[in-house]
Specification:
single chain, mainly alpha
């Protein structure tokens, strides 16, 4: 009876090790495929900017845009439509939340006009 219990424990251990190895291999394959880190938040400092004018808001918008890119990881290849859509949704959401959090009307106006294409 102890032999069956021992065999069962060994089998469960082997299955657990195989599952762990499979998960580790999958994670490494994802890293090798070019995925980049994803962060829940990125700190953007803007105390040096004057948000009463357009110039300061444009600089802040550029910083927020770059932070959204960092938070969502590297933009996927244009041929990977699924990952590109996920990235775009992440980026747009992160930038929208950041702009709303700042609460500047000038910044919101820049965002509404799609300033990320004009900031450089």
């Amino acid at each position: 009876m102890q032999t069956n219990t021992h065999k069962t424990r060994m089998l469960v251990t082997m299955i657990a090790l195989a599952a762990t190895a499979g998960i580790a291999t999958t994670a490494q394959a994802g890293d090798a495929a070019g995925t980049s880190p994803h962060y829940d938040s990125v700190v953007v400092k803007y105390s040096d900017l004057d948000l009463n004018g357009v110039a300061g808001n444009k600089v802040l918008y550029a910083r927020l845009s770059a932070a959204a890119e960092r938070a969502c990881g590297k933009e996927p290849d244009s041929r990977d439509l699924r990952r590109r859509m996920q990235y775009r949704a992440c980026y747009d959401s992160a930038l929208e939340r950041a702009v709303d959090k700042i609460g500047s009307r000038e910044l919101q106006a820049l965002h509404a006009t799609g300033a990320r294409h004009n900031v450089g």
